[in-house]
């Protein structure tokens, strides 16, 4: 079981690795692509939030049907396939509203796959979930490093257009589907359970935990504002193209540290407790956002993008493992789906608020994130796991 479990985790990590190479070729240039399409800061906030919100109810529905049917793999494949199609369509956007639709479609695919995939990981390594999710996130984020680096090289060295880069990313996304064939289904017996009843069975402690991570999600607005903030700073020293290149390079740095520390922080969470590690992550985000608000130096921003990567290494995989640990086995995918859906729904107001505050001053956007993340850190520190 241990060998089979690790086999599943590694294969799903390879799928995520390739898919993130694809996605992260797009993400660093997405805010620039949107600006070229005429998007305002509010529109960028809308699109950033919509990436995880408009179709996020699919996450809990997908998790429920995975539990009900006892099947995981078909939902994982369908989700990755939907995302691959949408990336090709994104390249042909003519106005920002087109991008909104295609980005939302890509996130629909994420909504279909996330809860069943996380359930496979949780069920494959029941005694080492922090490590399992850490391995998955490390492979996922290593792909992100290579993808963002590829984006930097394609944009900087070869001078390719945004459309060409996005089309190349779509092709790689289709390649990511092949390792899924070898994933072994962690099949469960089909259950006769209604959707509302499944939600009602989510324990109170899980609901409280989801509420706390949702508070942090309200602070954790779209990454696109961090890139735009870096561009805003660099615009005072260099031309627009050079500003974009430096901002993408900082984003690569963020991914490097995210990837490098995902497994160590997963193991740390297994050792000292997930609430402690999450509290550290929330506090670090509060510090990082505050520093973005107060300082305007490329050296400081370089350090802050490193901190931003460490935040995600501390938080991303361990939040999932935290919810998985608290969830009953029979409705684990439903609980994970509820977690993903809640985070997704909160992402929309989080990024809209960030966009509205940006219209006044980018400083207020980051002050907002810092304050709310501080509140989340206090709440998670007092959670008894």
Can you give keywords for this protein?
single chain; mainly alpha; Growth Hormone, Chain: A; 16 helices
Number of strands: 0
Q: Tell me the structural class.
A: mainly alpha
Rounded mean pLDDT score? 87
Helices, by number, come to 16
Low-confidence sequence ranges = none
Multimerization state: single chain
Describe the secondary structure blueprint for this structure:
Layout: H1 2-26, H2 30-36, H3 41-50, H4 57-69, H5 73-90, H6 96-124, H7 129-156, H8 162-175, H9 195-200, H10 204-219, H11 224-234, H12 240-272, H13 274-294, H14 298-326, H15 332-360, H16 362-381
Helix pairs in contact: 1-6, 1-7, 1-8, 3-6, 3-15, 4-6, 4-15, 5-6, 5-8, 6-7, 6-15, 7-12, 7-14, 10-14, 10-15, 10-16, 11-12, 12-13, 12-14, 13-14, 13-16, 15-16
Plain-language structure description:
The chain has 385 residues and is mainly α. It has one domain: Growth Hormone, Chain: A (Up-down Bundle), CATH 1.20.1250.20. It is 80% helix and 0% strand.
Summarize the structure.
It is built from 16 helices and no strands. It has 385 residues and is mostly helical.
């Amino acid at each position: 079981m241990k060998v089979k479990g690790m086999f599943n985790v590694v294969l799903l990590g390879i799928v995520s690795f390739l898919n993130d190479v694809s996605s992260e070729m797009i993400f660093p240039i997405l805010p620039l692509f949107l600006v070229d399409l005429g998007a305002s800061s509010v529109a960028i906030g809308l699109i950033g939030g919509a990436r995880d919100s408009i179709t996020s109810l699919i996450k809990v529905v997908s998790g429920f049907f995975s539990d009900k049917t006892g099947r995981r793999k078909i939902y994982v494949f369908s989700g990755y396939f939907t995302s691959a199609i949408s990336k090709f369509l994104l390249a042909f956007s003519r106005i920002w509203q087109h991008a909104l639709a295609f980005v939302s479609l890509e996130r629909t695919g994420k909504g279909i796959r996330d809860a069943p995939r996380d359930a496979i990981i949780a069920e494959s390594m029941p005694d080492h979930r922090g490590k399992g999710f850490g391995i998955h996130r490390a492979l996922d984020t290593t792909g992100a490093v290579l993808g963002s680096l590829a984006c930097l090289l394609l944009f900087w060295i070869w001078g390719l257009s945004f459309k060409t880069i996005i089309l190349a990313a779509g092709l790689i996304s289709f390649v990511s589907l092949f390792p899924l064939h070898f994933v072994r289904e962690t099949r469960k017996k089909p259950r006769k359970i209604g959707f509302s009843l499944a939600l009602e069975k989510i324990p109170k402690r899980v609901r409280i935990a989801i509420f706390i991570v949702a508070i942090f999600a309200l602070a954790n607005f779209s990454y696109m504002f961090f890139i735009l903030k870096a561009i805003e700073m660099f615009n005072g020293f260099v031309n627009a193209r050079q500003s974009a290149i430096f901002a993408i390079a900082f984003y690569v740095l963020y991914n490097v540290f995210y990837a490098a520390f995902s497994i160590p922080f997963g193991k740390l969470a297994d050792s000292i407790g997930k609430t402690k590690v999450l509290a550290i992550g929330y506090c670090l985000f509060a510090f990082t956002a505050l520093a973005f608000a107060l300082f305007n130096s490329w050296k400081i921003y370089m350090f802050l993008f490193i901190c931003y990567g460490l935040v995600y290494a501390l938080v991303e995989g361990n939040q999932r493992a935290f919810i998985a640990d608290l969830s009953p086995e029979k409705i684990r995918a439903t609980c994970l789906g509820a977690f993903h859906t809640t985070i997704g729904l909160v992402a929309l107001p989080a990024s809209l608020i960030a966009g509205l505050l940006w219209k006044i001053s980018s400083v207020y956007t980051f002050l907002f994130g810092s304050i709310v993340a501080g509140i989340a850190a206090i709440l998670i520190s007092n959670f008894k796991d």
